[in-house]
Write a structure and sequence with these properties.
Layout lengths: L13 H18 L1 E5 H18 L4 H11 L2 H14 L8 E8 L6 E7 L4 H4 L18 H12 L1
Antiparallel strand pairs: 1-3, 2-3
Helix pairs in contact: 1-2, 1-4, 2-3, 3-4
Length: 154
């Protein structure tokens, strides 16, 4: 029976699961994007997002709490120096999970988890001002206006 078991145990004992998620969190912070299974990515999201929220306040206490989870001083430095300033105005949702299909060996659902603000493709949300062109000519007139302009020149 699984009464009150609210998180995925990922087929591992507690120490193994915590160590794996800690290493994956450090890798995600350092590389900004990692490939893993969908279940691990969903579990990792629950570890990384609170860390990024804590990193918004750069204090000794928050650095120590981050090091307690990550266990990697380079990842902590990267988190507070590069990641935190970029997500300072974002209220949450720092990670994105993109499904990439099934793994060939065991048919496990694979995905890519990435930090949202570090993706160049999705991150640049510049909306271009586009004008609608009608087929009837309108203001510019299109090809019809060009022909009339040539006639006037002659």
């Amino acid at each position: 029976m699984r009464h009150g078991k609210k998180f995925n145990h990922l087929g591992r004992k507690t120490a193994h699961r915590k160590a794996m998620l800690s290493n994956m969190a450090a890798s995600l912070i350092e590389h900004k994007r990692i490939n893993t299974t969908l279940a691990k990515a969903k579990a990792l999201r629950g570890v990384v997002e609170p860390l990024i929220t804590k990193s918004k306040t750069d204090s000794t206490h928050s650095r120590r709490m981050a090091f307690k989870v990550l266990g990697n001083k380079y990842a902590v430095t990267e988190l507070f120096r590069e990641v935190a300033p970029k997500v300072a105005d974002r209220p949450g949702g720092y990670t994105r999970i993109i499904r990439t299909g099934k793994r060939l060996g065991d048919n496990a659902e694979m995905c890519m988890i990435e930090l949202v603000d570090f993706n160049e493709i999705y991150g640049t949300e510049t909306t271009k001002k586009t004008t609608r062109r009608s087929r009837r000519g309108g203001k510019a007139g299109g090809a019809k206006a060009a022909v009339e302009a040539k006639k006037e020149e002659e």
